[in-house]
Amino acid sequence: MAKENNPTVATEKDIKEAQKSTYDQLLEGNRLFVEGELKNDPDYFKKLSAGQSPKVLWIGCSDSRVPANQVTNTKPGEVFVHRNIANVCVHSDMNMLSVLDYSVNVLKVKHVIVAGHYGCGGVAAAMTRKQFGLIDNWLRHIKDVYRLHSHELDLITDPQVRADRLVELNVIEQVFNLCKTTIIQNAWKERSDLEVHGWVVDIRTGLVKDLKVSCSNTDNLSKVFALDAVTPAAH
Ligand SMILES: [Zn+2]
């Protein structure tokens, strides 16, 4: 349908202009960001480029509404970040493990925070029987969380309340998954200033709910997951 007959139909030119506008806004945003920081502190980027020593690792959802720095009112350099769909921590994910190992053993972060959020599309999708494509393989991890807690979840009749609870249970299980890694457990054997926490960001209010599942030892894990220290091989 031609545009002159229906002004609501976007032409190829309109689409290209909108595309360029979104892209240009990002570059303009960067210019404003640099200008603003330099106005506050002319040496800002000089200092930032000298190195990083964040005290926090944030493992959150890729959802565009839950950015680690804005949610915690922190600045560049303060939070090391890993994000994936529905903040899942799987012990075979080399990406997550690399981020965890580097932040715990090299940067020596003090706090690892798994941050889920209410209204998580990944969690909502995992509660359905629909196929979404490749992502179904990733969402399987959340379906496993559902199965672990189905006795509780199946009793919740309101779908919204049930989804919110699965968001919380997913965070709790991912906290435990982190605590089961040799990376966290070996760090605990060496130092006492490392804690793993579980949070949910309520995107309806912006506020964080601390799920109070913070761990700094293996006490809350089933015995089979609490690993002994590696002893040097006998010669
Ligand atoms: Zn999400």
Mean pLDDT: 94
Structural class: alpha/beta
Beta-strand percentage range: 5-15%
Provide the low-confidence segments as ranges. none
* Biggest β-sheet description: 5 strands, mixed
What general form does the structure show?
A: globular
Which CATH class of the largest domain applies here? Alpha Beta
How many structural units, i.e. domains? Answer: 2
Oligomer kind: single chain
CATH superfamily of the largest domain: Carbonic anhydrase
Q: Order of helices and strands, N to C?
A: HHEHEHEHHHHHEE
Give the termini separation. 81 Å
CATH architecture of the largest domain: 3-Layer(aba) Sandwich
Q: Percent of residues in helical segments?
A: 40-55%
**Radius of gyration over alpha carbons?**
22 Å
The total of helices stands at 9
CATH fold name of the largest domain, please? Beta-carbonic Anhydrase, Chain A
Instruction: Write out the distinct hetero groups bound to the structure.
Output: zinc ion
